[in-house]
Input
Amino acid sequence: MKFTNKKTTKRSNKALSLLFFQEPGERVLQRIQEYIEEHHFMQIQYFSKHSLPLTFKFAGDLSGFQQSFQQNPSHELLVVGTPPDGPVSHEILLTLKLSGAIIKLIPAEIDLLTGLLEISNIHDIPHIKLFPDKIGTTQKCLKKLLSIFISIPGIILTGLMLPLITLLIKTTSRGPVLYRQKRLGINARPFTLYKFRTMQADAEKDGPQLSGDHDTRITRTGKFLRYWHIDELPQFWNILKGDMALVGPRPERPFFAHFLSQKIPYYKVIYQQKPGLTSLGMIKYGYASNTEEMTDRLFYDIVYLNNPSLAMDARILLNTIRYLALKMFFSPSEKRKEKRQDELQTHTSSHDPIIRWVSFKNKING
Output
């Protein structure tokens, strides 16, 4: 991927709004001003705690954004700085999500995201699209056909393995073979996810808990099923039903999704696509055993959402096969865990996801 800077000399009839959650640096203001002048937006306004040295309309503070935006919608919005946790930020981001506008998140300082995402730029300001352009109808249909084409053999394989898996589960623990759990799918719609049970039947009697590599609730058979991801095979049925896709952000339980959405205001962007059996986060980061790791893994979900294509899906599927094949010779999970711990030590003091993601700027190149 290369940085792109599309230029146009045509007069635009589109409106632009800017939301300054943080006061930007001088270079950012200069680049934004140049971007606006070059694209000739018809209507321009910005919202901030106070007026800034810009040549277009100051529309007031952030609390007035929603009402103003509903009366005069914008085609494109630039969100400068990280939205803080709070009801105003949550309502603003929900408004943005439902708007259908192009939303771009820009760091308050240019250097913050330099090298992090080579997706696009605004006069040398790298940015993340919070609500990226969706893939075309043709690619969407092809992705759906691919999911059906692969899920049917997957269901057949699961059926062939079912007697042996049932025997292994029943001989090591009491309880059902299949485990049903509520997860959140596209548009945060709840659905029932199916897995082979890998824990004791009463594993969450004290409430929802994340699981780590040395979780004592996991049965002997469960460790084997988890290592090879065999416990995920029943999700081919979820794919065939249309609840999931082959590739997409991994679905979370409502409890943890609510927690993350409170901690990370723009966590809900992952709901714009169906959750997947595998994901960029799974092959690049692996299982998350705490909320900090879940935050870090979200970075990869946003990278994926910024690159929705059949080519990206094919790359992730091939890397998933490679990941499983390598497990025959060594345990990548242990190596990944050590690497994760080293990386987390450098930025666990920060609660800002953008700052946390800076330490992962080179990981997607591997």
